[in-house]
Amino acid sequence: MKRTEKRIQSTLDAFNVIGETEEGIQRIAYTHNEKEAQVLFAYLCKKEGMDIKVDAVGNVIARREGRFRSAPAVAVGSHVDTVYTGGRFDGIAGVVAGLEVVRRLNEKNIRTDYPVEIIAFTSEESSRFGMSTIGSKAMTGKLSIEQAVKQKDKDGVSLAEAMKHYNFDIANVNEAIRSKTELHSFLELHIEQGPELEKQNKKIAIATGIAAPTRLCVNVKGMAAHSGTTSMANRKDALIAASQLVIMIEKFAQEESLHKTVATVGVFEVFPGAMNVVPGDVEFKVDIRGLNTASKHRIVERIKEEARAVESSRGVDIEVDIIGDEQPVLLDEGIRQVLLDACKDLGMDPMVFPSGAGHDAMNMQSVCPTGLIFVPSHNGISHNPEEFTAIEDIALGCDLLEKCVLELSMEREINNAKTSG
Fold this sequence. Notes:
Keywords: Hydrolase. The protein is α+β, with helices and mostly antiparallel strands. It contains 13 helices and 17 strands.
């Protein structure tokens, strides 16, 4: 293993000790484990001579000054939090890649013209609060106080309350916003979380755009009753009604497969939750994703229509609330060309395709020209302890990231702009 690969592996291992369990890595948003990973990130960046800032929601920003201190920064980064049974690469690979680029710049004694930043975003995963990319939403002015109060975890703790536990006041959320004059560009390296690179035996992909989620919270209200004395004809079973609706959600998504739209029910709670009680209430959450907004909205409307039909046939009440409706994002063409040119110079043969998963890059595009690099995921597995990306593939991604950071952060780029916006 090459020295840089050993360094990348060692750094990943240091992060993945944090939150390691038999069920996978668990660094859940706004918990001690996420905080510990952020502290480690800040420590490692300080060792490289970087200045550290923690913004109003907990994003950690490490800055390496350039010759022009007032110039906008070229930023790289990703997130350190995980899902409940996470793998060892999702998110953290991009943070470690940013750190590796800075280490290389320091070793080569290169001083860029523009500042270079590494951003470790907080709370990218939606596992806890049902809302994704919270840190980058705040940084780009897309997180409201109302959302932070409304979004709650499975224990009823709101996002605002969880933030307060770590001394972040949601009333100050706008202080996290970065202006378009602060950031020149943003690059995110991420594992693909899909099988395309491995299927084509390729090592690098450049994303053209990012699919966005529409998320629903569905509440089914029936009537709790004794399971032994309530006849089948007299039941208002919320679980049966909810199950009928879930089966139809799969059907609606399958009918939109031409647009590659997908729908998932990943949270399902039954009340009161006793073996001898007919379920009286059910709450479940739906994640609908795709690049075609009309396709996503057709699924939402069909879910609402089906909910009315189930209400009528089952004698229950169903409430369908939209808790998030994000728009698909097209990433900057100029940055994509910089990435493609760098691939050519490095002898890489990249794939080019859109991302089906959401990433912090989707929010950053609204503030500065943004690019997204993918490295392979073995068997396309992610959000799972079996998630695996070879260190040599991450190192190749770092090679590309380093070359592009250098290209974007030098003065000549001002006069020969390859980025739009």
